[in-house]
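Posting this for the archive.
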Amino acid sequence: EKYIEVQVDTLDNMMKERNHQTIDMLKMDIEGAEFAVIDDILNKKLDVKLICLEYHRQGEKPIETIQESINKLLKNNYVAIQGDKNMLTFSFLRKDVYDSLKS
């Protein structure tokens, strides 16, 4: 119910400014903005190998919204490697990286 507004930038803009082609690990605890960032990563096909995040309950159906976000990651070649349903913290490793570690 209480919030502040802050100026933000997109992940791909920050990557371009720093001349980064890939991100090895992205850790997010961004109070509900994680849904938009995940969608942006997937839509722009940004090269992010490991995503660690804490989900925050949003909207009328918060658990469904979180599950939908998790499903998007799984459908886009990420593997869930850690999860705590009570704390809503999860880690997702891109499948190609995961497979290379198993070899």
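The two ends are 48 Å apart (CA to CA). The chain has a mean pLDDT of 93.
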